[in-house]
Protein 1
Amino acid sequence: MSSTFNHLSLIAVFLLGASAFAQESPLRGELRREGERVSDACGAFSFKSVPGCAYTLFTDHPLHIAAGSMPPQNGFGLGGAFVWSKNTRNWRMSWDFDAVGAFSGSWRAGGYMKMVHTPHPAKPQIRATHPYTVFNFYAQTISLNKLNFFGLGNDTTLAGKSLLGMSERIVGASAIKPVFEWAAIRWLNLALLGEINGRFIDIRGKHGQSVPSIETLYTDATAPGLSSQPGFAQLGEGLRIKPAIGNLQLNYMGKFQQFFAPSSSH
């Protein structure tokens, strides 16, 4: 009797483990389905299948190829991206992580999160528009290997051309808060805007080119901030209105920005 019970227990544990394994997580399920879509689009090579395969590789989710132009003179970047979203009763949340690099050695990488507040009031009101509060959180790093500097002011010449490299890291958050509580101004579709960012910049010379590196032509007096680049905080606040007149949708925005550094800098 005891032996039979032990065998039944082992079978039950095995079945429970198999059942748990069979229950895919949402992410694992999406990755499996994406793999099936890529296999269908790109499995059998032919010239007719190339557009469909490329479309799948560049636009599918949660993984896809990322591509985009870098700033001028820094080439075209290729890399990868991961996107994911999750909805709850009161929030729509999405994440985006991507990284691209160019043959010039320049690259960009970042992570971004968006949260859209979608409350369910006890007495829903019918409106022509659906204003939602939106929060954005982000962190990005970009490294550019080739930038031109000709000096300050309007009297610069080609003779003052120099090269430099720059890296910048940005960490911050922004918010959009629609103001729809006042019926008298609801037609304006007024929204309050706010942001806070930390920016950290590093400047470096660019050597081995026919054009001289920046530090060989300029000093802190002629290129302020050349030897030291303190990080700084950047705040922003503003208003946006999007009134609709018939089929005409207007969009106006006013914004203030402030910059704060820990020491005197330019």
Protein 2
Amino acid sequence: MPKQALEQSIQQLRHIMIIGMAFVGYSLGFMWFYDQVGAVIGSLLLLPVGLAAWLLGWRGGLLAALIGICLNIGLFLLNGSSFAEILALGPGLMMAFVVGGAIGWLRSLIDKIQTQTTELQRERELLANEISQRKQIEQSLLAAKEEAELANRSKSQFLAMMSHELRTPLNAIIGYSELLQEDAEADQLPNYVQDLSTIRNAGVHLLGLINDVLDLSKIEAGRMELFGQDFRAIELINDLELYIQPQIAKNNNRLVLDVAKDLGVMHSDLQKLRQILLNLLTNASKFTQQGTITLRAKRDGDWLHFEVVDTGIGMSSEHVANLFQPFVQAEQSTAARFGGTGLGLAISRSLARLLGGDIMVESVLGQGSNFQLIVPAFQLAPVTAM
């Protein structure tokens, strides 16, 4: 096409609203579609270089007409109101002006895709921001958890190390008060005997509280040691009976033993097992008035089963659920009436688990409680308390 004719055609097309244009170049065999501002928005056609050169070379005019017809037919089928004109700019380049609804349809589709892409990008940024915030919160919670655990370990380690320093002076107070009490009794000084008995009882009570706190701290700090030894289970039962009888009689209770004859020999920490059973018997006696406390024991293979059953005040299911938590008693009124810190059962369960066993409880409010202790007859290695 002569230059003058091309310029004239371009001037005529200025009066038509050009929505888009396509360029076809034979040297690379491509077709690009441009919008009004000249941004590339998609590749419409790829031709082999040789074919593009042949078609757009000496057959440029014929090809332009054929492409124009095809475009018009295609655009008409799309919306029935489109127009396309092809101009041959030279032996190797053509320009197609497309006017009408087809380009509008294409632009609408492109705008929709771009909008969705923008929304997707925004959602992606929001999600990334939320993930970042969650990670920061998780890191803060983890840091707080580690700090709390460190503080708790430090507290437990401190109390565990203070065991000797706290117990030694109390043992001295208790010991000297007992000696003075014996002297006062020998000299027939009843007023002094009563006062010294009060001092001794207060010292024993305080020592028990300190022992409970220190035991719990040792367990939490992982410093509770076990000392295994061989012993006959029946000897443990007999020792417990002699020790607990005065306390059971104090509340007008009756102790019943239901012990199997084949308990045999155990290898475990005798003092820890004794501490557990003594705590269960003490609790049963404390919360029972003019009732019956039964201690059962039997052997099942390599396991020893102990039960402490009382006819005392019992507990509701809600209170049983939290019974083994430290510093927990069934009710506030119970603590005020019967005393205690609520550490005994927490320590007992922890010790039972250190021995490889566990403690369970069944209770009915107003009817009594049944505590079951299960421990292996041969405890081989300490287990972490739960």
Protein 3
Amino acid sequence: MKRLLPILLLFYSFNSIAQVTKITGKITSADNSTPLNNVSIKVKEKVSGTISNSNGTFSLNYNGKLPITVVITAVGFETKEVVITSANQDLAVTLNPQTVMLNEVVSSAARVSQNILQSPVSIEKMSLKTIKENPSFTFYDGLQSLKGMEAVTSSITYKQVNTRGFNTTGNSRFLQLIDGVDNQTPGLNFAIGNLFGASDIDIES
């Protein structure tokens, strides 16, 4: 009995190792066969998963019984499910591009999310196209073309945006944010225009 026990433990170890399923493969785009990176590969209804690398390849170890379903998802592509029936299976997966229409998000003082047409207040915006077509020296000068806006000149390279009609450089009524960060000077308590702001090439809208 003492000699039989180590043999049984040895077979049990082999059985545990055999339950590990290694899944490898490569993911490409269906329209031009380009390798896709950062694609999510996840075992359905399980926590096991991984992502593809820059070459589109991936490797996933799963400790469980077969068959299993692998869910493959990527932004801009249709989701695909692949059934794995055998261990050490190498996959060649192609994903079809998917066009997703996204609505423009506008942040305002309302408590609910809404777009420009639904907002109860007036919203003026310079789009990326408008910035590129702006004939002014800088995009900041082009803000005075918006309704109710005025660019007050303090020097040859410095202008401050204010409400039309006030004509002062100290504008404490405006909150100027760049990527969500308040751009006002702590000592003055108002924004200093684009003196230390973003450049034209960094602006999206």
